[in-house]
Every structure is written in structure tokens, then in C-alpha cells.
Design brief:
about 270 residues; alpha/beta; 60s Ribosomal Protein L30, Chain: A; five-stranded mixed β-sheet
Length: about 270
């Protein structure tokens, strides 16, 4: 049976709330996910929270009942609480009716099986959690294997990134590495590294892509460093017809990903 917590001073509430901060997520090896859709996606992908919090008025929702039974059957804990406490945990003025605490995934390159998918996303020094989450959603949409984060990127386990992923956090592999580690790993097996660049002379539809394609997107403000561009097997540009000189990083990634998918699928 779920237990009830209605006090803000409860030690578990304080501990879970602290997971909104990166250092506490790192120390605990945990992260937060919220919302019926995201938790249902996690369930479908085989991920279950250690702690499940739900608003009292949602206790009879079929997804909440299913999640509660599944969590408790696996030794986790289901907790009925108030919307005020859910607001405190998530930081949202209008919190979702359900929130889960999950173990962080291993994010070393050894978790990546490049043969598992024809497309892999690579992001260098990505700063915006919304962009990160959107790239994960794009990856899920095109059947990519996952996202490799290069150098100092935003935390993929942040509340904002998980929220923006809309569940793709649980369907896509995530790895983190320095450039000096990633490039030798990439060259140690099959894989075509494709980068977008304003310096490129080839349009993104003119290049020829082959699986597995590692599609690399640069920092939102600076793009890819010149040395990283030079290491790419293919450098392409996306035509800009107006006054803007570039697309949003996540939008550019989506445009590229669907062209790669079109060519690979033939």
C-alpha cells in the first residue's frame, strides 16, 4: 500500500527536492522525471522508479494504479502526496500529477553499440536543456541509437532536459565523453562523422551518407570548433535564405537527421 506524505519537512521530500541540483544528482546517482506520459514511456522501455509520488486525486487513474503496482512489486515505494509537495519537488507552478525518482544510466562510450542503429546524434558543448531534450526526441523519431555528448554539455539528467525529451530519455542511449576520447573511439570501428558548418561548400542534400552516420551538432552560439570540423568525414551546410545565419541547434539536427534517414532507407 502507498504511504502518505503531506509534510514539507519530511526527510524524503527534502532529499528528492535536492535532486533538482546537479551536484545532488551526481552524488546520489538519481534523477527526476514527471508526468504520466514520460513515466509511461519509461515503463514501456523497462525503467521503473525507486520512488513514485502521485497526487491524491490521481490515485484512481489507470496509469497511476499500474505504475504503483509495478513499483511496489519491484521493491520500490509509492507515495501519495499533495500538489503543493509535487510543486516543491518539480519546481513547476502547475506540477504534473505524478513524479518518479530514477537511477541514472551509465553514460560511458562502452555502452554504445554503434551497430545497433543507422544514425547516432553527437552534440558538442550543448548548453540548453531544451535543445538536448528535443534532440533526444528527434533521435527517437528517426530511429537513432542515441546521443553522445562531447565536452562540457548541459546535464542530460536535469529536470528540464528530461521534461523536454518527453520520454525519449528512456528510449535513447546517452553517452558523455571528451573529444580526445570520442574521436579515437569513433575511428576504432565503422562510422561516418558528419558535421554542419558555415564553412562548408556542400549542401546537406548533396552529400552521401552511409550507416552508421554520426551526426554532430555544435554549440548553440559558436558552432563546432574548426579542429572538430576538420575531423569530420563530411561537412555540410543548410541553406539560409533569409537574414539568419544559422538554425537553432535542435532544429538543425532534425533537418539533418531526416535527410540522413531518407538516404539510408533509400
Amino acid at each position: 500500500m502507498p504511504r502518505e506524505i503531506t509534510a514539507f519537512s519530511n526527510p524524503l521530500i527534502k532529499r528528492v527536492r535536492s535532486l533538482r541540483e546537479k551536484r545532488h544528482r551526481r552524488d546520489e546517482g538519481l534523477f527526476l522525471a514527471e508526468g504520466l506520459r514520460i513515466l509511461a514511456e519509461a515503463e514501456e522501455a523497462g525503467y521503473w522508479p525507486l520512488h513514485l509520488f502521485f497526487a491524491a486525486e490521481s490515485a484512481d487513474h489507470p496509469i497511476v494504479r499500474r505504475l504503483t503496482a509495478g513499483v511496489e512489486a519491484r521493491g520500490g515505494e509509492a507515495i501519495e502526496t499533495t500538489r503543493d509537495i509535487l510543486h516543491k519537488l518539480s519546481g513547476k507552478d502547475n506540477p504534473q500529477v505524478v513524479l518518479g525518482v530514477y537511477r541514472q544510466f551509465a553514460t560511458d562510450l562502452a555502452t554504445i553499440d554503434r551497430a545497433a542503429a543507422p544514425i547516432w546524434m553527437v552534440a558538442q558543448s550543448l548548453r540548453d536543456p531544451g535543445n538536448l531534450g528535443t534532440i533526444l526526441r528527434t533521435g527517437d523519431a528517426v530511429g537513432a541509437g542515441g546521443l553522445i555528448l562531447i565536452d562540457d554539455c548541459v546535464d542530460p539528467f536535469s529536470v528540464e532536459a528530461v521534461r523536454a525529451s518527453m520520454g525519449a530519455m528512456f528510449t535513447q542511449r546517452i553517452a558523455q565523453a571528451r573529444w580526445e576520447e570520442f574521436l579515437p573511439w569513433l575511428r576504432g570501428g565503422p562510422g561516418q562523422l558528419v558535421g554542419t558548418s558555415l564553412r562548408a561548400s556542400v549542401g546537406f542534400r548533396m552529400a552521401r551518407y552511409a550507416a552508421p552516420t554520426f551526426l554532430m551538432i555544435g554549440n548553440e552560439a559558436q558552432g563546432l570548433p574548426p579542429a572538430y570540423e576538420d575531423a569530420c568525414d563530411i561537412r555540410v551546410k543548410i541553406p539560409m535564405r533569409g537574414k539568419a545565419d544559422s538554425l537553432n541547434a535542435a532544429v538543425a539536427c532534425a533537418v539533418m537527421a531526416y535527410e540522413v534517414l531518407r538516404q539510408i532507407e533509400g
